[in-house]
Amino acid sequence: MSLRAFAIAYLFAQAAGAAGWWLALLAWPESRAPFVAAGAPDATLLAFGPADVLLYVGLSAACAVGLLRRREWAWPLLCVHTGAAMYAGLYCVTLPLLTGGSGWLGAALMSPSLVVPAWLCVKLRPGAHRT
After folding, report:
1. How far apart are the two ends of the chain, measured CA to CA in Å?
2. What pLDDT, on a 0 to 100 scale, did the predictor assign at position 130?
3. Which terminus of the chain has a lower count of CB atoms within 10 Å, N or C?
4. Is the pLDDT assigned to residue 33 strictly greater than 70?
5. Shortest CA distance to 58 belongs to which of 118, 103, 11?
């Protein structure tokens, strides 16, 4: 599998997974507990929804489409998505460290977002030598 094909598959899977996760959180409020700090209101999680859907889900899917169609705008969009993904990932990893352990499921699920988009960004930059 080529790097580009891997990137397309990863970004589509990431977008679909995150969209499904948000739908589950909205449809089943009891599913939210593992993703919030103990005792915190659901609003502390749900407040991330609009930005996450736009910058994490939307940009992930848009990047995949751009790479699939070999558009020049795909890489700059991937750079923006990478920043958003790393921000979200760092938040999710920091939450259990600061709250005595609650929220580790979110940290585990978001850990690939701390590495994979940045790696793709570096490897797919225009003019990069791909091996």
Report:
1. 12
2. 61
3. C
4. yes
5. 11
Spell out the long-range contacts of 31-38 with Cβ–Cβ below 8 A and sequence spacing 24 or more: 34/103, 34/104, 34/105, 34/106, 35/103, 35/105, 35/106, 36/102, 36/103, 37/95, 37/98, 37/99, 37/102, 37/103, 38/99, 38/100, 38/102
Rounded to whole angstroms, the Cα distance separating 22 from 3 reads 28
Percent of the chain with pLDDT over 70: 98
Given a contact cutoff of 8 angstroms between Cβ atoms, the answer to whether 81 and 57 are in contact is: no
Asked if 107 and 93 count as a contact pair (C-beta separation under 8 A), the reply is: yes
Taking the C-alpha atoms of residue 12 and residue 35, their distance in angstroms, rounded to an integer, is: 23
- Chain centroid to Cα 26, Å, comes to 18
